[in-house]
Amino acid sequence: MSREPTGERTLLWLVAAVQFVNVLDFIMVAPLGPDFAVALGFPVSRLGLVAGSYTLAAAVAGVAGSAFLDRFDRRSGLAVAMAGLVVATAAAGLSRGLASLLAARVVAGLFGGPATSLSIAIVADAVPPARRGRAMGLVMGAFSVAAVLGVPTGLWLARAGGWRLPFFGVAGLGAVVVASAMALMPPMRGHLARAAPRSGGYGFLRDPAARLSLCATAATMAASFAVVPNLPAFLQFNAGWPRERLGALYMAGGVLSFAALRVVGAAIDRFGPPRVAALGTALLVANLIADFYPATPLLPAWALFLLFMLANSTRNPCLSSLASRVPRPEERARFQSTQSAVQHFASATGALASTRLLEAAPDGRLLGTDRLVILAVPLALLLPFLLRGVEARVLRREAPVPGGAAAAAPR
User: Fold this and answer.
1) Which candidate, 366, 364, 155, places its Cα nearest to that of 248?
2) 8-187+204-396 has which fold?
3) If you average pLDDT over every residue of the chain, what do you get?
């Protein structure tokens, strides 16, 4: 297998650093929620608003960004998006009540959503399809590193200096990453040279591969986020995991995900996304049925959590790597922005549905997780089939035409 050039490697590490800040800004909010809820004087039952405000704002930004992101240098667009995220994260640390916190998280979502879209578009522009699975695995490893280092560090900072300190820390780190990306990342304007004179709008939705890819994104994220927001409470109250050791568990899950993503990326390049996604889906469905459907999980808390992390670390890169081959280069940021909107709307839908299906017992246990499984399992099972449909159409389009000419420009 060919190794990536040095410049490509540097670019990937820069994008991974951007994604680390972006992901950490999102995932650290849930563990810190009880701390700032008490400090700002609102009930913990309102914490869903804090997460939902970011997700819905990111979805709106995805819809809006699909109309214009492909018109600019990707490096400049990424710098603007990350700068806005840095300011919004610092503002969250200055919040004086629920209203100001929600406002800050809305702004963070408006910038964080496009930052993710542009990051994926940069990787797809810079890395050829033969190496793209490994590249996506590296960039998506930012989630694992954020879980390994970011969440435990944020919890420690909150204990040492109050709940505001983690927000200021992420904002400071984000400023450093933005400066580094602007200094070391080359201009990313190749898609502008290939753009059609009247490129714009949602013309890519005429492609069946694009529609199937967006359906796969919706099903995957709705299935995951029916569980993810409730996972810390489930671990503590249903599976008996101590609150003081929650950071260690997230760290272990992050280490496992980081290691798995390197293997999964290589497997995607070798066996194709649908086959690898089928393996991850089998793990996830087994995890949901064995541990979330019964009144008492069959596996211990640490095992069910690690299996959940492994399954999603196997499924998500399959979706990202294949989706990156769907749009033409001049449509890539618009497509990724639309995909980001679908991803966030589906995440919010899954999370909202979970609040309708679950109840809290007096001792804190979550009731109704069997209903959650009935919702999540069929959605999860769709992914391999949808990816097979996307792959068939992408390969047909990429196949050489008689005479040796390529059927389409490199993607």
Assistant:
1) 155
2) Growth Hormone; Chain: A; (1.20.1250)
3) 82
